[in-house]
Amino acid sequence: MNQVKQIRLQKYKNEINMFRKVFKVRIFVCLFIPVFTGCASMSTMQTARVTEKGKFDYLVGGGVVNSSIVGTSRIVTSPDTVSTTTVFSQKFYIPFIELGMRYGILDNLDVGAKVSIIGTATLDFKYQFLGDRNSKLAGSVGLGGGYISIGVNTTKNHMYDAMLPVYFSYHPLNWISLYCSPKYVFRTTNSYNFENNYHGTTFSHWYGASGGIRIGKRIAFLAEYSFFGNSLSPVPFSQVSCGIAFQAD
Predict the structure, then answer these.
(1) What is the DSSP letter of 31?
(2) pLDDT per position as a tens digit, 29-80
(3) What distance in Å separates the CA atoms of residue 49 and residue 61, rounded to the nearest whole number?
(4) Which pLDDT tens digit goes with each residue over 120-144?
(5) Rounded to whole angstroms, how far apart are CA atoms 38 and 17?
(6) Taking the chain, what is the end-to-end CA distance rounded to the nearest angstrom?
(7) Domain architecture of the chain: domains with CATH
C-alpha cells in the first residue's frame, strides 16, 4: 500500500512540475506579450490622406504602452487533487521608439513600413476612397501585416499580425489635421520552450482605435492616443505616441 501511495505521489509531483513549466510559457504568451507588442502594429501616426505620388514621408516617434498583467495559477496540494487559485496583477509602463516611411504609389494609394526598437515591424497599404490631398474630409482603408520575435531564457515567440485599419481625418486648415483610426488585428503566436520541448500556437483578436492631431505641413508634429482590447486578456492596454513627420522627394 505504501508503494502505491509513493507511486501516486510521484505521479502528481511530475504533473505539478510539468504544469508549472507549461504555465510559465502560457503566462508569457498570453499576458506579457500584449504589453510588449502594441507599438508598431497598434499605432497610427498618420491622417487619412495618402502620401503624394512619387514622394516619401518619414516618421520618427515614440511613446509609452500602459497595461496590466493579470493571471491565475493552480496549486495542487495533495494526491487528492485539492487545489486553489491565486490571482495576481502588475501594472506596466513600457517605452518604445519607432521609425516609419511611406511612399506614394498612385494619387490615391501609398505603401508604408514601420519598425520599433523593441522589435516590431509592419508593412501596409492605404487606399484613399474619400477626398483628396486638398479636401477637408478624407477617408481611407488599409491592409497590412506585422511581425515580432521575442525570446526570454529558453522561450521563443514568433507573432504574425494581419491588420485591417480604417482612417478618417478632418483638415480645417492646411497645417492642422485631426484624425481617428479604428483597427482590427488578427494575431497568430507560435511559442517554443526548448527546456521542456513545448510548442504551441495561439490565435487572438485585437480591436480598438487611435485618435490624434497633426500640426504642420512638410514638417509636422503628431500626437495620438490608442486604446485596444484583445481576446487573450480581460485587461485592455493604452498607448500614448508622439513624433515628427517630414516629407522628401
Answers:
(1) I
(2) 344 444 444 555 688 999 999 999 999 999 999 988 887 665 555 555 555 5
(3) 19
(4) 899 999 999 999 989 999 999 999 9
(5) 32
(6) 84
(7) 2-248 (2.40.128)
